[in-house]
Write a structure and sequence with these properties.
Layout (H helix, E strand, L loop, with lengths): L1 H23 L10 E4 L13 H4 L11 H11 L5 E3 L12 H6 L5 E6 L6 H8 L5 E5 L5 H7 L5 H17 L5 E8 L7 H10 L3 E6 L8 H4 L9 E4 L2 E4 L9 H4 L2 E2 L4 E3 L12 E2 L5 H5 L2 H13 L19
Parallel strand pairs: 1-2, 1-9, 2-3, 3-4, 4-5, 5-6
Antiparallel strand pairs: 7-8, 9-10, 10-11
């Protein structure tokens, strides 16, 4: 009975501590995160130019998460979690034990995001029968030229066939899995949004347009969509800046940490290269890291001068009227 109320009570306590911290400017953390993102691997089969993994700008070591580390994290955090995202950098389906990770997270609402190149008929049937709650499939163009302008080394036909494989499997096994087709919109593909939306509708999938995060400032002009609501950046005093006031607060530091493939705990999904490591799960428990001195110091800096932190300058938190 106590366990039944633990998640909602924890969520209320965490929410209260975030609001209190935002008002007072003093980091006060009570409770545990309600969501966590875990990186199965930072390897990828594509070479997307604005992705740290695909572009080759990533400096940290490449590898694959150990399944025992995953089990350890799930065991400690599952009493509090409402959601687990099994992806960060890289393509999660490249992990040789991908389906083992799914089977070890069946009691938590779980989401996977994939570039869609490994959705064979067999894999699609295994996915819809795995207990996975949501599958996000990236589709950034409807023809090969447009698609591969960003998804370098990708094949749009393979992705579209994969989408159909999953939707057929969902129907075949009467699965409740949510399928979402996500378009990372840029200048080259924004005109194709209606066609991608129609494809999603035809297979009864959800559709989401996501504004593009551009990690190299010199490339912003090349990718920035022409429609304002689709663009994450604006021109100000001769340079592109993010359309956010960057308020001195961020819920991610109270609700949604990220764990890299090698067990490093980092503050959020914008720390692509794990530059702000809060702790190592191979050495400490998550709770000790969550309440530890590095997290306290980082939260304090968020509450006082968020715009001075490099990873925060490209963050979608605080954006208004933009597809994020």
């Amino acid at each position: 009975m106590i366990r039944h109320f633990l998640k909602p009570v924890n969520a209320l306590v965490a929410g209260y501590s975030f609001l209190k911290s935002s008002v007072t400017g003093k980091p006060d953390v009570m409770g545990m995160p309600v969501s966590v993102s875990m990186e199965l691997t930072n390897n990828c089969n594509l070479n997307c130019p604005e992705c740290y993994s695909g572009s080759g700008r990533m400096k940290r070591e490449r590898g694959f998460m150990d399944i025992d580390l995953f089990k350890k994290v799930i065991k400690e955090m599952s009493p509090y979690l409402y959601n687990t995202n099994i992806y960060f950098q890289g393509e999660p389906m490249l992990h040789p034990l991908f389906f083992s990770f799914l089977s070890n997270s069946v009691n938590i609402h779980t989401t996977v995001s994939t570039n869609g190149h490994f959705l064979s008929e067999e894999n699609s049937e295994k996915i819809v029968n795995s207990g996975l709650n949501k599958l996000i499939i990236s589709l950034d163009g409807i023809d090969q030229v447009t698609y591969s302008s960003y998804r370098i080394n990708g094949d749009v036909r393979t992705v579209i066939d994969g989408i159909k494989n999953v939707t057929i499997a969902k129907s075949k096994f009467n699965s409740a899995i949510i399928i979402e087709i996500q378009c990372l919109v840029n200048k080259l593909n924004e005109a194709q949004i209606p066609e991608i939306r129609d494809l999603a509708k035809s297979v009864r999938a959800q559709f989401r347009v996501k504004s593009m995060q551009i990690t190299d400032k010199k490339d912003i002009g090349s990718w920035l969509p022409l429609k304002g609501r689709l663009a994450r950046y604006k021109m100000k005093e001769g340079e592109y800046v993010i359309k956010s006031s960057l308020p001195d607060r961020c819920a991610r530091l109270w609700f949604n940490p990220v764990i890299t493939w090698d067990g490093k705990v980092i503050p959020c999904c914008f720390d692509k290269d794990a530059e702000y490591i809060m702790g190592d799960l191979k050495l400490d428990s998550f709770r000790d890291i969550w309440n530890g001195p590095k997290y306290r110091i980082f939260r304090k800096s968020i509450l006082s001068c968020r715009n001075m932190i490099e990873i925060c300058r490209n963050c979608s938190s605080g954006l208004r009227g933009v597809a994020t």
